[in-house]
Amino acid sequence: MQRCDSLARHSELAGGLTRVFLSREYRTATEEVLSWMREAGMQATLDAIGNVAGRYEGTRAGLPCLMLGSHLDTVRDAGRYDGMLGVITAIECVAALNEKGKRLPFAIEVLGFGDEEGVRFGTSMLGSRAVSGTLDPATLEARDANGVSIAEALRAVGLGEGIEAVARKKGQVLGYAELHIEQGPVLEAEGLPVGVVGAINGFSRLRATITGTAGHAGTVPMRLRRDALAAAAECVLAIERIARSDTELVGTVGRLEVKPGAINVIPGEVQFTIDFRAPRDALREKAVASAIAAVEKAAADRHLRAKVESIQQLGVTACAPWLIEQLERAVAAEGVRVRRLPSGAGHDGQAIQAIADVAMLFVRCKDGVSHNPAESISEADAGVGARTLLRFIESFEPRR
Ligand code: GLV
Ligand code: MN
Ligand code: MN
């Protein structure tokens, strides 16, 4: 918990926490995490895509690893546990092994992934996609709000060379386990400190652009306007209606950019994001198709132009039954009733599953609040989470 507080100081937002991928604050945070990894007896480096990667060898050097970790970037005005808690807890577990001089018949790698949230460049899980070898080099051309591409941002901090070499091969990773706060209310409602994830919901991220005609707010009569924001407002409500059509579906418009953006100018162009999540891929795909149709209709009805681009999508990721079983055994050994639950939020395991089976342990958070500075967990629950993860590691048996 102290280390989560310490990492929260690396923030571009005074009095709050915002740390986007490859920012100055992101770099200083990685320095601190590297030093904790080294203290815990790991060899640690910042890799070519900006992940912090630590390795604790097993009974001999070069053995395949159990991979642990989470992410080090944050959303805007974030809480201090989303991502960080998983990285720090994994390091603490390795530190506990190291203190006992204990080596296991496999190595442990702890990854602090960069850009899980996708806040800066719109596209998420860059770090874990590089590790799983699924990062399309074309993705590095995505640009932030200032027009800086991922490739340029990497070069500016001396990274970006040899990203292909970051990829682990199948067989080098025996499994991936991530501890994360639940970010929802289920564990709290049931009085449980931890729970085991059954599957991670799939997501689709899109960007819509509606183009009208900018004009004088005082002189253009209402019937002659081509107001892009009025159409976008209809789209936001249509997307909300689509998302409400099924209890398993959620949909969000989280960002709108209005151009030119002045009190006395009719909006000429609006760009906005769309985010859908669901535990069934067909349901999510149907929602995406309905949203595209709704945006096109809202624009056409007002004689405007619309374009909808897909930014990123990932299907539902099932956690591996054999890893779930081992995690659940560790939970039970802590004296906690075993509860399996789905993850509504996205996680790096969705990328890592390309090279290894994945599992997740959730820690209860207060009122289910996350992506919000009010995010809060108790020290006692963090302790249960850490002890459960350590038990899991110490009794981990690779799949035969
Ligand atoms: C990441 O936190 C996401 O689910 O968007
Ligand atoms: Mn998050
Ligand atoms: Mn997260």
Net shape: globular
Rounded Rg: 22 Å
Individual helix count = 11
Beta content comes to: 15-25%
Distance between the termini: 36 Å
Q: What does this protein structure show overall?
A:
The protein has 400 residues and is an alpha+beta fold. The longest helix is centred in the C-terminal third of the chain and has 21 residues, at 281-301. The protein is built from eleven helices and 16 strands. It is 32% helix and 23% strand.
Task: Produce a short descriptive summary.
This protein is α+β, with helices and mostly antiparallel strands and 400 residues long. 32% of the residues lie in helices and 23% in strands. The strands form three sheets. Strands 1, 2, 3, 4, 5, 6, 14, 15 and 16 form a nine-stranded mixed β-sheet that branches. Strands 7, 9, 10, 12 and 13 form a five-stranded antiparallel β-sheet that branches.
Topology diagram in text:
Blueprint: H1 2-8, H2 24-39, E1 43-46, E2 52-56, E3 65-71, H3 84-99, E4 107-113, H4 126-131, H5 150-156, E5 173-181, H6 186-190, E6 194-200, E7 202-211, E8 215-216, H7 228-243, E9 250-252, E10 256-259, E11 265-266, E12 269-278, H8 281-301, E13 305-314, E14 317-318, H9 321-333, E15 340-343, H10 349-352, E16 358-363, H11 379-394
Parallel strand pairs: 3-4, 3-5, 5-16, 6-15
Antiparallel strand pairs: 1-2, 2-4, 6-14, 6-16, 7-12, 7-13, 8-11, 9-12, 10-12
Helix pairs in contact: 2-3, 3-11, 7-8, 9-11
The structure holds glyoxylic acid (GLV) and manganese (II) ion (MN) (2 copies).
